[in-house]
Amino acid sequence: MPELPEVEAYRRLAEERALGRPVAAVIAPDAWYLKGGLDAAAVTAALVGRRFTDARRIGKLLLLDADGGDLVVGLRFGMTGRLLVDENDAVGELLYSPKTDRPEWDRFALRFADGGLLRMQDPRRLGGVILDPPEARLGVDAASVTPAQLRAAIERSAAPLKARLLDQAHVAGVGNLIADEALWRAGLDPRRPAKSLTPAEHRRLHKHLRAAVADLSERGGSHTGDLRIHRAPGGRCPKDGAELQRATVGGRTTWWCPKHQR
DNA sequence: ATTGTGGCCTGCCCGC
DNA sequence: TGCGGGCAGGCCACAA
Predict the structure, then answer these.
(1) Which pairing describes strands A171-172 and A140-141: parallel, antiparallel, or unpaired?
(2) Is the pTM higher than 0.70?
């Protein structure tokens, strides 16, 4: 599903192909997909005639800056959303998402004056479009978080470590698969209170979180982790062979190795 | 503020 | 072969 690596790929796609092209029409057939009180008429009025000057990303939120400096389009992809520009895709298949591309799954699109099309394909409709999204509500991006920032984000929380990593207000961009991968690499029990980490464990977590984000981005997606294929009933830890445990942590299905994740 | 829970969305997959 | 239930998780509303 789209976590940070996928949304970063969408950002690069938008940067390469969507900037500088005047918007001629907005296609917003799904009112549910427009968030923050937005409707089709308002988003059309806001965007027709504008061009995008920059494509940014904070966590899993893709931000398109419109010319004039007074308008930002925020795109959220939920679990099954994909971005296509002129039929160019940024990622391969998405885990948990249908592989096909049906017209009725286009929840939002922009027609450019040159005839090109930017569209969001989202079978499960968990994504959305918002104007001027509240960027300040997001924590520091997981791809660039420093050791001190990560420590500050988690060191006083009584919540389970994994829940804290998933909280976009504190660290932005970590989804379920990257959280499990990073904690598995770092050898940390996802159920541990976040504030229980020692200084050495903070360093380990930072190192492995950054490495997991970088590796999975390079490999092509959040589903490419070393743990991922073992997250299934009967799955064993590829490090030490112990049977993986499964539980709900932070409201999400969580798999971890009881032998080396402490 | 923090933390936890439930619901939303819908296609897919399994067992019957 | 069809059917129904369970499942997937990002995000938000809500409760205490």
Answers:
(1) parallel
(2) yes
